[in-house]
Amino acid sequence: MIQLEKVKKYYGQDDNKLWVLKDISLKIQEGEFTAIMGPSGSGKSSLMNTISFLDGDFSGDYFFNGEQVYQYDDKKLSLIRNSTVGFVFQSFNLIENYTAYENVELPLLYSGCTHKEVRLQVTEMLEKVGIGDKGNNLPKQLSGGQQQRVAIARALINQPKFIVADEPTGALDTKTSDEILTLFKQLNEENGVTILMVTHDQEAANYCSRVIDVRDGLVVG
Ligand SMILES: Nc1ncnc2c1ncn2[C@@H]1O[C@H](COP(=O)(O)OP(=O)(O)OP(=O)(O)O)[C@@H](O)[C@H]1O
Ligand SMILES: [Mg+2]
Fold first, then answer.
1. Ligand 1 pocket mutation, candidates 9, 11, 36, 216, criterion most atoms within 8 A of CB
2. 166 contacts 136 by C-beta, under 8 angstroms
3. For residue 112, what pLDDT is reported?
4. Where is the ABC transporter domain (predicted)?
5. What average pLDDT does the chain have?
6. Which residues lie below 8 Å from residue 75, measured CB to CB, with a gap of 6+?
């Protein structure tokens, strides 16, 4: 599904170039649950931004299902990104004055679904991620783990082709992390959701079906 061929990227210019992706070729198949590991500053987030259609400033080729998506203008690119990628962040990034239900509903409001369809889909998704009874709570009325479940539900509601999660358990305690990772694993195994997860944590990587090791802008394993 995802294929990078000799992808290189730098920040800065002229003598101040900092190469963050040095020569990355990799393939990710549909249905994989992949961990991206590596030291701070090794280029993991830069790699994720490239893969998730957020940053087309690189050389080399990126094929998504055989297509070079970055050839399109920003408008079409963001349409493709919205329908293809679900984002999960370390800090949840929920809208504070929206309920859990409203946060998950938001991506569907532009989908053309009827009110009834939206209600059904959001309710089912909240159930699926284990917070069916928390729809009316504001983020501040939820634990960290519950907030991350809302974020995962929001990421999944548009049925994206893949999920990118950059340190999704970075702000959670060990027990809650295990619960969130178990949910990811379940979504991957039972619903075939393709997941790319950046993590520093070997324990977290153990939940994945595959690990990509990034060091200093290179894939080393
Ligand atoms: N917008 C930017 N402008 C200039 N340099 C940047 C920019 N974004 C990242 N960098 C640099 O690129 C390198 C790789 O950054 P990146 O965020 O990809 O690392 P990372 O592996 O995700 O690190 P961490 O584990 O700390 O999140 C770092 O040295 C960083 O300082
Ligand atoms: Mg990062």
1. 11
2. no
3. 84
4. 2-220
5. 96
6. none
Rounded to the nearest whole angstrom, what is the distance from the C-alpha of residue 24 to the centroid of ligand 1? Answer: 16
Q: In what order do the strands lie in the sheet with 210-215?
A: 85-89, 162-166, 194-198, 33-37, 210-215, 218-219
Q: Please, what are the domains in the chain?
A: 31-53+85-219 (3.40.50.300)
Q: State the residue for tokens 């249905």.
A: 31
The answer to whether the beta carbons of residues 194 and 163 sit under 8 Å apart is: yes
The verdict on the CB of residue 42 being under 6 Å from ligand 1 is: yes
Distance 191 CA to ligand 1 centre (A): 33
Query: What are the tens digits of pLDDT across the range 124-142?
Result: 999 999 999 999 999 999 9
Q: What percent of the chain has pLDDT over 70?
A: 100
In sign, the C-alpha dihedral spanning 152, 37, 65, 72 is positive
DSSP class of 67 = B
What's the pLDDT at 35? 98
Tokens of 72: 């399109």
Is the beta carbon of 11 within 6 A of some atom in ligand 1? yes
Answer whether 183's CB lies under 8 Å from 129's CB.
yes
pLDDT band (50, 70, 90) for residue 221: confident
Atom of ligand 1 nearest to the CA of 43: 18
Confidence of residue 68 (pLDDT cuts 50, 70, 90): very high
The alpha carbon torsion through 139, 145, 148, 150 (nearest 10 deg) reads -60
- How confident is the model at residue 161, as a pLDDT? 95
